[in-house]
Design brief:
Aminopeptidase; 8 helices; binds coenzyme A; 271 residues; 13-stranded mixed beta sheet
Length: 271
C-alpha cells in the first residue's frame, strides 16, 4: 500500500498497513493523496466522527516539500470535514509542522505526550480479556467519555489484537478498559485507556497489560491536560518523549467534558 511506504519512510512505527487500511475501510472519501506527474507525492487522512473530526498521516515526499503541497492536502481535508458538518477538527502536530497548522487557523490545546517504557508486570483477577459480547457496553462508555463514536476502530482492535484488550468490570459494571496494538517491528502501543475511576485506581489495568506483553517496553499517548495520568506514568517508570506533538483544534472550542476519564489516546490520527 502506497501510504504505508510513506509512513515507513518517516519511521512512524505504529502505522502498519493494517492500521492505514482501517481508514480506507472506514471512509475511503476521507483518504487523500497528492500526485505530481502521476507519482505519489503525499498523503493525508481525515476521519469523520459525528460532530468532531481528526486529521492525520500528513506526509509529503521530501523531494516535493516546501511547494505548498502539504498545505493543499490539509485544505482539502478541512474542506471535506466541513462539508460533512464537523464543528471541531483535531490533530496532533509535530512541532516543526505547527506553523503550517497555525496558518490554517488551528489553535494549540495542549501537548499530546508520548511516553515509552515499562511498568511493573502484575496479574489481577479482576482484570479480564475483552470479549465481543462486551463491546456494546464499551461503545456506550466510550461515547460518554470520548464524546464521539469510535466503535468501528475499537471493534477492529479487538478483532486483530484480542490478547492486548483488557477490561475491569465489577458488581457496579464496567469500570475501565484498555486496547493495545502492535506496530512495525513488534512495537506495542497501549490506548485507548478509559476509566470511570482515578488513574491511580486504574493502574492495575496497565500493569496487567504489561504482564500480558511480557518483558518489553511499550508506548502510550497521553494528553498533558490529564495531569494525574502523566504523573502516575512517570512515577511508575514511563519516560516522556522530550519533544511531544501539540494537540491542536480548528472550529468551535472543544467540549472537553469527560476527557479526564480518557487516560490515554487511541491514536494521534483519530483520537
Ligand atoms: C509537514 C509536511 C507534510 C509539509 O509538507 P510541505 O509540502 O513542505 O508543506 P508546505 O510547503 O505547504 O508548508 C511548509 C511548512 O511545513 C512545515 N515544515 C517544514 N519542514 C518540516 C518537517 N521536516 N516536518 C514537519 N513540518 C515541516 C513548516 O511549517 C513549513 O513552513 P515554512 O516553510 O514557513 O517553514 C512535510 O514537511 C512532511 O512530510 N514532513 C514529515 C512528516 C511530518 O512531520 N508530518 C506532519 C506530522 S504532524
Amino acid at each position: 500500500m502506497a501510504a504505508a511506504t510513506l509512513t515507513n519512510q518517516e519511521h512512524w512505527r505504529s502505522e502498519t498497513p493494517l492500521e492505514l487500511a482501517a481508514y480506507y475501510v472506514y471512509d475511503p472519501d476521507g483518504c487523500f493523496i497528492a500526485e505530481v506527474d502521476g507519482i505519489l507525492a503525499g498523503i493525508c487522512i481525515a476521519t469523520v466522527y459525528q460532530h468532531t473530526g481528526f486529521i492525520g498521516e500528513l506526509i509529503v515526499q521530501p523531494q516535493y516539500r516546501k511547494h505548498q503541497l502539504g498545505t493543499r492536502l490539509m485544505q482539502t481535508a478541512i474542506e471535506y470535514l466541513n462539508n460533512e458538518g464537523i464543528s471541531c477538527i483535531f490533530l496532533d502536530g509535530v512541532l516543526k509542522a505547527v506553523p503550517l497548522y497555525e496558518r490554517l487557523g488551528f489553535l494549540p490545546l495542549c501537548r499530546s505526550l508520548r511516553l515509552f517504557g515499562q511498568v511493573s508486570a502484575r496479574e489481577f483477577t479482576h482484570i479480564t480479556p475483552i470479549q465481543t459480547i462486551d463491546l456494546p457496553q464499551i461503545f456506550d462508555m466510550d461515547l460518554q467519555f470520548f464524546g464521539s463514536d469510535r466503535s468501528f476502530f475499537l471493534e477492529r482492535r479487538l478483532r486483530h489484537y484480542p490478547e492486548l484488550c483488557w477490561k475491569w468490570q465489577d458488581i457496579n459494571g464496567l469500570q475501565a478498559y484498555l486496547f493495545g496494538r502492535v506496530g512495525i517491528g513488534g512495537w506495542v502501543t497501549a490506548g485507548p485507556w478509559v476509566s470511570r475511576r482515578s488513574a491511580q485506581e486504574t493502574l492495575p489495568l496497565l500493569e496487567h497489560f504489561q504482564s500480558a506483553i511480557g518483558n518489553q517496553p511499550f508506548s502510550i499517548g497521553v494528553l498533558e491536560s490529564t495531569n494525574q495520568t502523566v504523573q502516575l506514568l512517570v512515577q511508575n517508570g514511563m519516560q516522556p518523549n522530550p519533544e511531544p506533538p501539540m494537540r491542536m483544534f480548528l472550529g468551535l472550542v472543544p467540549n472537553m467534558v469527560g476527557s479526564e476519564q480518557c487516560l490515554a489516546i487511541g491514536s494521534p490520527a483519530k483520537g
